[in-house]
Amino acid sequence: MAKSNDTTRNKSSAANPQDNTPPNAQHVWLAGLGAMAKAQEQGSKAIEALLNDGLNFQRKSQAEAQQRLQEATERLSHIASDFGQQTTGRVDKLEHLFEDRVAKALHRLGMPSLLDMQMLNDRVAQLEAQLAALQTKAAPKTAATAKTAPGQTVPAKPQAARAAKRPKKTA
């Protein structure tokens, strides 16, 4: 019988709108709807604020990352430069040592050095110049007179021209 009294009481309260005290479940439901309305109203503002905060944070993070990357790049380029200078110095020393040993070995075999070859080339060029100068001085004297007999001179060019004009004998 207790059940019937409870059900009749619920029916009478639901049917009677004059009763101003809503039940607890209805309070929760209405509170939820109110929270939903406020969330919709303030949600777009909250989302915009979160987006702005997120963008600001992203920009700061990217700027910080750029700065760190630049610092790391500068450090690595400095280290690479130092390493390159050390390596270049060592390679130069090794190259010089190799050249010296090869030069000594060639000297022992009697091969002339590059300096010796340059000196010889210069000397040959000097001798060729002297020879050309002597030939130009002697050329006018020999071309002007060709001796056929003692005391007689005949121009050299007409003789060569006469020899070229003679008909060849055919057998």
What structural keywords apply?
mainly alpha; rod-shaped; 171 residues; 4 helices; 2 strands; 82% helix
Shape: rod-shaped
Mean pLDDT: 77
- Supply the helix-strand structural class: mainly alpha
Give the count of helical stretches.
4
- Distance from N terminus to C terminus (CA atoms, Å) equals 169 Å
Per DSSP E runs of 2 or more residues, the count of β-strands stands at 2
SSE succession: HHHEEH
Low-confidence spans: 11-15
Q: Could you give the order of strands across the largest sheet?
A: 1-2
Strand content: under 5%
Largest beta-sheet details:
2 strands, antiparallel
Topology:
Blueprint: H1 2-15, H2 24-108, H3 114-144, E1 146-149, E2 152-154, H4 156-165
Antiparallel strand pairs: 1-2
Detailed description of the structure:
With 171 residues, the protein is mainly alpha-helical. It contains four helices and two strands. The chain has helices at residues 2-15, 24-108, 114-144, 156-165; strands at 146-149, 152-154. The chain has a two-stranded antiparallel ribbon with strand order 1-2. Strand 1 (146-149) and strand 2 form a beta hairpin. The longest helix is centred in the middle third of the chain and has 85 residues, at 24-108. The protein is rod-shaped and about 150 Å long. The protein starts with a helix and ends in a 6-residue tail after the last helix. The relative contact order is 0.02. Mean pLDDT is 77; it is low at 11-15.
Summarize the structure.
The protein is built from four helices and two strands.
